[in-house]
């Protein structure tokens, strides 16, 4: 038997703070080191003597910034001693989220779960599939300065449009009904208008605000004024663009561990630019939020595009406005579309099953197609002079060879260009009949620049598609070649417009503010009436599209931009004396000259053998095929963000439609977590 004096010598007082309005003072509890965390909770609740559900409460260790969630662990195992400041607080707290459409939602989120799991729960509340493509972003201080200077009282308008989802079952800390995300009971939207089915409206809530909730999330409400646009942060340089990506939260740690407090505002954004299995029937919210993220990226010049492309984007946006004003007609169309539901499902299935008919598959296996054409070769020379000459080009496998003429094609080529791992940049102006392809081919000391000029749209589409596939290590036998050709042609078709007499007379009568649809760089170049007329010209090519189709075309056009999917970081490569910019994409890393913006070297993920992080010196080291090693430290953000980007993209490449309902969360954390 142990005497009472001996027992007391092993006990000590632990002061606990209770995050509850009825408990104001700290509570001291006598404990021993072998008391487990669950037992401490029980002792505390018995001492508080308040009858309520305490199941959402847990201990937060203030000094070590961590949760004590393993209730079977003893205080000794956790390392808790008498000086520990433990707060007994709720795990689910209210968070404000700014969505890609600039609307703010207020909801209860788990502050103790890893961010990856928290984002998954948030996406269930908002009915966004493929939560692994999104993450939470802390707006960096640099991006907020402009707004603060312009308007110090900007808090008032920010609270006007807040959508409160705190009473959602998932938001309240309860598990979501698994039936909502089963294959047979997924919330359904009209594939033409994007409006939710009546059964889907009831999913958001039982109150009268349910329809409004659906509308805010799934439908576009362009309320951007030129003044609002002028107040927002617009990156001017690559260094400015790097600031936008500095605040991504660590997916392997909780919100509380990363300094996020209750009622804080974070941005919910698509982080990974690989949008898997977009389906208008189930993804109205996802498609709309993607469209909005693309729209704001273009308006705020976070991604560069040509004048011609900007007018296409403006026409598609302006078209949304006109379609939304006819919302009653849109609702009428939902009844008709239900009749064609089976046909739509069959056509979706046809698109899903890649591979086509048997004869095509046989051709793919036995015969790798080739292209052969007269093209003009442009090689940049010093003193800004260019040498342009016509050659006979042959595209086979992933290489381009060119000869003096067609007759000499049986002999040795003048030069053979291997396009695997190269950068392919469109150089097109449809109005000027210019169809160019810029190739940046990796060589030992940087990138070799080659320009190809095509004669017409068809030739350009075939060669451009072949170059894009070859850069990824694929040939024209790949099943994605023909769809890529069609995608390029449809984008060129949207750019190819002529001014009709009707459009010419409309600018005077149309009440349109082009400044709402065009980025500031182009609004400074033209007068308002000129822009209105040109938007109306471009509008003729998209006027027959349904609302959802217009959004999908907008997303597709965004994906066609050369800079699409690149997240920028300022880094210092090992052995280098100057800073460079690193562009991280879904399939490659690009080293970019910070002063000129020109790509220096490209490394493909498909050639990567391994990567690791030296957490002591915060250095990322990567090994590629052919004994290529690179190492760099990140200056504009924590190196963990780049490490997570690389692992995240590799994780997303493992997804397939066979098991598209479940995610291997453990694999994600293995690839992205790291050991600090």
From TrEMBL:
Residue ranges the record marks as coiled coil: none
Residue span, PH domain: 376-472
Gene3D superfamilies in alphabetical order: Phosphatidylinositol 3-kinase Catalytic Subunit, Chain A, domain 1, Pleckstrin-homology domain (PH domain)/Phosphotyrosine-binding domain (PTB)
Organismal lineage: Eukaryota, Metazoa, Chordata, Craniata, Vertebrata
GO BP: cell-matrix adhesion; integrin-mediated signaling pathway
Entry superkingdom: Eukaryota
Source organism per UniProt: Elachura formosa
Listed GO MF terms: integrin binding
Name of this protein: FERM1 protein
Protein family (similarity comment): Belongs to the kindlin family.
Pfam families hit by this protein: FERM_M (PF00373), Kindlin_2_N (PF18124)
Keyword ATP-binding: no
UniProt keyword terms in alphabetical order: Cell adhesion, Cell junction, Cell projection
Keyword Cell inner membrane: no
UniProt cross-references to PROSITE patterns, sorted A to Z: FERM_1, PH_DOMAIN
GO cellular component: cell projection; focal adhesion
CDD domains (UniProt xref): FERM_B-lobe, FERM_C_fermitin, PH_fermitin
Subcellular location: Cell junction; Cell projection
Main location: other
């Amino acid at each position: 038997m142990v005497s009472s004096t001996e027992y007391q010598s092993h006990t000590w007082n632990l002061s606990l703070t209770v995050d509850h309005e009825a408990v104001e003072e700290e509570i001291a509890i006598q404990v021993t080191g072998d008391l487990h965390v669950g037992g401490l909770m029980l002792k505390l609740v018995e001492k508080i003597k308040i009858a309520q559900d305490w199941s959402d409460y847990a201990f937060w260790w203030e000094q070590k910034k961590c949760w004590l969630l393993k209730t079977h662990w003893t205080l000794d195992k956790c390392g808790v001693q008498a000086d520990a400041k433990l707060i007994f607080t709720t795990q689910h707290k209210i968070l404000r989220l700014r969505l890609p459409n600039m609307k703010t939602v207020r909801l209860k989120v788990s502050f103790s779960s890893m961010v990856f799991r928290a984002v998954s729960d948030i996406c269930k509340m908002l009915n966004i599939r493929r939560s692994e493509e999104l993450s939470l972003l802390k707006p960096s201080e640099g991006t907020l300065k402009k707004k603060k200077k312009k308007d110090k009282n900007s808090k008032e308008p920010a609270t006007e449009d807040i959508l409160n989802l705190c009473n959602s079952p998932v938001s309240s800390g309860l598990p979501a009904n698994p039936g909502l995300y089963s294959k047979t009971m997924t919330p359904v939207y009209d594939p033409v208008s994007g409006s939710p089915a009546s059964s889907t409206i009831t999913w958001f809530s039982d109150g009268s605000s349910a329809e409004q909730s659906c509308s805010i999330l799934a439908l576009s409400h362009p309320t951007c004024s030129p003044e609002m646009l002028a107040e927002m942060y617009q990156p001017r340089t690559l260094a400015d663009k790097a600031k936008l990506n500095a605040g991504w939260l660590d997916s392997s740690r909780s919100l509380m561990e990363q300094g996020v407090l209750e009622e804080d505002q974070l941005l919910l954004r698509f982080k990974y630019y690989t949008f898997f299995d977009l389906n208008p029937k189930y993804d109205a919210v996802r498609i709309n939020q993607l469209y909005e993220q693309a729209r704001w990226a273009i308006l705020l010049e976070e991604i560069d595009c040509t004048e011609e492309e900007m007018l296409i984007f403006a026409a598609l946006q302006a078209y949304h406005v006109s379609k939304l004003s006819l919302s009653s007609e849109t609702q009428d169309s939902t009844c008709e579309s239900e009749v064609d539901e089976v046909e739509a499902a069959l056509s979706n299935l046809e698109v899903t099953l890649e591979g086509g008919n048997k004869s095509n598959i046989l051709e793919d296996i036995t015969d790798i197609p080739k292209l052969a054409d007269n093209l003009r070769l442009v090689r940049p020379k010093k003193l800004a002079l260019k040498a342009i000459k016509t050659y006979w080009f042959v595209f086979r496998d992933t290489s381009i060879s060119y000869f003096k003429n067609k007759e000499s094609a049986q002999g040795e080529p003048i030069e053979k260009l291997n396009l695997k791992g190269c950068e392919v940049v469109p150089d097109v102006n449809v109005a000027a009949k210019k169809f160019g392809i810029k190739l940046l081919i990796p060589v030992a000391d940087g990138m070799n620049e080659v320009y190809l000029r095509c004669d017409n749209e068809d030739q350009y589409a075939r060669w451009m598609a072949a170059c894009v596939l070859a850069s990824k290590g694929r040939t024209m036998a790949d099943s994605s070649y023909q769809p890529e050709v069609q995608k390029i042609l449809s984008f060129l078709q949207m750019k190819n417009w002529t001014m009709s007499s009707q459009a010419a007379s409309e600018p005077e009568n149309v009440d349109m503010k082009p400044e709402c649809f065009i980025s500031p760089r182009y609004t400074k170049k033209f007068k308002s009436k000129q822009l209105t007329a040109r938007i109306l010209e471009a509008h003729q090519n998209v006027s027959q599209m349904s609302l959802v189709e217009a959004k999908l075309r907008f997303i597709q056009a965004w994906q066609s931009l050369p800079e699409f999917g690149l997240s920028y970081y300022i880094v210092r490569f090992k052995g280098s004396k100057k800073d460079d910019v690193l562009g991280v994409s879904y399939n490659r890393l690009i080293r970019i000259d910070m002063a000129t913006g020109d790509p220096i070297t490209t490394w493909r993920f498909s050639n990567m053998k391994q990567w690791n992080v030296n957490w002591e010196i915060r250095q990322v080291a990567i090994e590629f095929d052919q004994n290529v090693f690179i190492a760099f430290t990140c200056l504009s953000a924590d190196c963990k963000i780049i490490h997570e980007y690389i692992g995240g993209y590799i994780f997303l490449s493992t997804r397939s439609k066979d098991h598209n309902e479940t995610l291997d969360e453990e694999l994600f954390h293995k690839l992205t977590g790291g050991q600090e």
